[in-house]
Design brief:
This protein is α+β, with helices and mostly antiparallel strands. 45% of the residues lie in helices and 17% in strands. It has helices at residues 51-59, 86-95, 98-122, 127-139, 148-161, 173-195, 214-220, 224-235, 243-250, 266-281; strands at residues 4-8, 13-17, 20-25, 28-33, 37-42, 63-67, 73-77, 255-259, 262-265, 296-300. The longest helix is centred in the middle third of the chain and has 25 residues, at 98-122.
Amino acid sequence: MGFRVVLVENVADIRVKLDNLVIRKEGKDIWLPIDDISILVIDNLKITLTARMLCTLAKHNVGVVLCDQEHLPMGYYSSYDNHSRMAKGIGYQINCSRGFYDSLWQQIVRYKITNQAKVLKRMQKDPKVIEALLVYAEEVQAGDPSNREAHAAKIYFNELMGTTFSRGNEDLLLNSGLDYGYAIFRSYLARLCVGYGLNSQLGIHHHNEYNRFNLVDDLMEPFRPFVDYYASSLLEGEEFFTMEHRHQLVNLLNHKILYKRKKMYLSNVMEEFVSDIAAYIGGKEKMLEFPDIDHYVEEEDEV
């Protein structure tokens, strides 16, 4: 699979030639092999994409994120089906029992809340809140019927961002950073699900009939704290959500983490995780390893 996340923010002519994406900017052509691209982020309303280009990108499993005039992702385009055994994978997803999915959701929520606690510890927040989160993580039952996830989220964001913080407040700068970072991660996971033969509509816990990405939203949960930590650090003391901030959030996929005893890009960790989830649902994997914020080494390479 591709590894580059390409962000286009200036007016440019984009075309496809010989399985390359050619971006013409200020009289110069930039050639990028399409097989190297994982996500194309279009953040300029004057850029035009052709049907031929979209078909070629879908054929190579390149996801396309479209941003609005506020520079926030508003839409995502991906291939519909490019896995040779998609029907078989969907069969595995359908045949898994409710008990299996409830147990899997329990694991996901526990690791998400644990990572939230580790974010607060990393940022030297109130030890009492950290301890409360760890207790919530231990209390998560199969299927999370007591909604420990929501209870944890409330005290987590209050401690991380302050009691006046609200995820629904569009006027808060941090929300722009979180929305942007989440959207990039969500798009990346969506293309991975397609690539590994998983139907993104068939969720583990999310079952919204209008949501094409129920499964993606489930698999996002353990990764959200990485965005929380980096976005809050990046935007602390800032007044505006700038182009540079967007570049840095896209580049978060190229930050490194220790995973399975190896130092890996976060994008590669996501791919390993989705691959393991597919194998786990298919009965070929007995244990899952989740990303750990404690193993985030904060090193990065350029996009």
